[in-house]
Amino acid sequence: MVNHFRVSLLLGLGMTIPLLSVDCSDYGKLSTHEMIQCTDRELQQYDRKLNRVYRELMQRLPPEERQRLREADRAWITYRDRECDFEGFEMRGGSGEALLVAGCLVTKTRERIRDLQRLLPDP
C-alpha cells in the first residue's frame, strides 16, 4: 500500500536510503539520517501488517462490501500521503522534514491497521 518510491523520494529527495544495521533502540542518540532509516524500516513493517489485515478483511467480507472497502482504502491512501506531506511543512526544506513525513506515515498506517482490525468479523 505504501508507495516506497515516493517515501524514498520524500526521505531523501531522490537519495535512496539503504537499510543498514542501525540500532534503533536508542533513538535519541541517532543522527537524522539514522532516524529516517529506522522510521522507514518501521513503516515497511507496518505496511506489511496492513496488507495482511486488508487481505484478511477482504476475504471475510461479503462480496458486496469488498468494493466499498477497496474504494475507501484508495481514498485513505491518498489522504494519508497528502496529510503527511503537509505535516512536513513546518520543516520544509530542512533535514527534519523527511523525518516528520515518515513519522506521520508510520502513525497513520498504524491507525489504519487498528481501524481495519476492528472491522474484522469474529471468526
Describe what this molecule looks like in 3D.
The chain is an all-alpha fold and 123 residues long. The protein has one domain (4-119): Substrate Binding Domain Of Dnak, Chain:A, Domain 2 (Up-down Bundle), CATH 1.20.1270.180. Helix content is 70%, strand content 0%. It contains 4 helices and no strands. The protein has helices spanning 4-10, 32-60, 63-87, 95-119. The chain is elongated, with a radius of gyration of 16 Å. The model is unreliable at 1-19 (pLDDT under 50).
Q: Tell me the β content.
A: under 5%
Overall geometric form: elongated
Helix content: 55-70%
CATH fold annotation: Substrate Binding Domain Of Dnak, Chain:A, Domain 2
| Counted beta strands | 0
- The helix/strand series, from N terminus to C terminus, equals HHHH
The unreliable regions are 1-19
Which structural class best describes the helix and strand composition? Answer: mainly alpha
State the name of the first-level CATH class. Answer: Mainly Alpha
| CATH architectural arrangement | Up-down Bundle
Number of helices: 4
Number of domains: 1
Give average pLDDT, whole number.
82
The end-to-end distance, rounded to whole angstroms, is 25 Å
Major beta sheet summary: none
Radius of gyration (Å): 16 Å
